[in-house]
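re: ur question from earlier - yeah i can do the single chain one, its not a big deal. heres the input i used so u can compare w yours
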Amino acid sequence: MADGRENSKLLTYEAFEGGRKQTKDYHGMFDHAYFVAWFQRLLDEADSLGKSNAIIVLDNAKYHKGLPGNTPKGSWTKQKMAEACEAYGIKIDVKEFRSTLWAKLKTHIAANIVPVIVQLAKDRGHEVVFTPPYHSDMQPIEMVWAYVKGAVGWQYNTSTKFPDVRQRLDREFAGLPSRVVFDCINHTDREVVEMAAYLNAVDDADDAAGAAFSSESESESDADSCDDCDFADYDGDV
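and the output i got, formated as tokens:
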């Protein structure tokens, strides 16, 4: 959480260990329900600090974008889909195929139903934004994580055991300097501003190129037009 160079901090730190048979990738160790529970604790902590109108930056992980449990699914029967269409006010024909009903529902869902955490944040006066794919440089937490891993890694030696790593990890997160958190967030803010400027410049260039092409086409059209030509003294074929 950015709150000036002296008061920025990491909120809702939680470490967990997977079992021996679980995937080594932490993304596979918890699901949407786990993340929603963590996210609610994050919102509670923000409230306890008196913070409002926060922008919460997340990547596009599947568990970040889970929809409400009662959201229609493609595996539903035609009858359930028809009932959902009626509930949403979507006009249908009873003779329509199940695939057609699902296409209508998918369109409605995409336009009107937001992920659970997006609504939770909105209800508390905050906003969730998702970074573009493959842009981890716009994720402040990635920079914080790199800082912590580096600090823990420097303490490694041949006698290091897993409990040692866990203890050092907890210690580094607990003592994470405010300036580090602030600088990480400030850096990603600059990345966003620079990308926005670049995209705006590209849009302006495209608009200018389109306008120039349109003007050139009109000029060529005027040159080829014979609406005002005078053929009174012309003896050839027209």
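Residues 132-218 form one domain. not sure if urs matches, ping me
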